[in-house]
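User: Hey, quick favor. My workstation is busy. Could you predict this chain's structure for me?
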Amino acid sequence: MTTGLRYVYAVCRPFGAALQSQLTGVAGAPPKLLHHRGLVAVVSAVPERDFAEEALRAHLEDLEWLTATARAHQGVIDALTTVTTPLPLRLGTVFRDDSGVRMMLEAREGDFLRTLDRLAGRVEWGVKVYAESSTAEEPAASPEAAGSGEAAPEAENGPAAGKAMSGRDYLRRRSRSVREHESGLRRAEEFADRLHERLAARAEDSRLHALQSAALSGASGRNVLNAAYLVPRAQSEEFVEIVDRTKDEMPGVRVELTGPWAAYSFAGGKP
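Assistant: No problem, here it is.
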């Protein structure tokens, strides 16, 4: 092993298949296997100037650096998933040297082995459901129609052009729009609940994650389901078909499937 700190991607059981020859990890170094008793830590050397405690803390505030590091970390996990069942460790897990990694493996050996047994031959699928914008977004109030008895300005185009709308008419129309919005959102949430029940029944385990904010995720529509499912690899095709069949069941609802992933959501056991 070359000099530098040890970055740890995952823990797994020993496996015979070779990793991709051109695979590089965090900071451009190829991942190596560090064996200790019945476990293997997948590690690579990283420079102390970037991964010592204070430097790493500062880098984690740098979005560009963090994105590149997360991409390299995930690339190694994805490569491992094709040849074995990895137990991914948290981004930025670093030790001083091989001895520190082995001490970690020994201290957590029982937990690692139990979790690896539970996850063996299984992958994680992610499913998100969105109420599309027309369903999810409540109409904005019109400042011109603030007064209940005042006429709203004349419309510039359309069938109502040249005809003023009274404040009462505006409020009646807005009330109807709000009811339609609430009804559409409720239908989307009920659909998401039914889909989750159906998928959870086909999976060995499931996790409901916090719903994502559109402002943070950049996804269109309102997120009404954000779930992960632990599925035996041999049953993944059937699981995917179930999700695919639901995609056109409900107008105004979008279903997104991601995976298969290493079982990040299930690495810590039952919550």
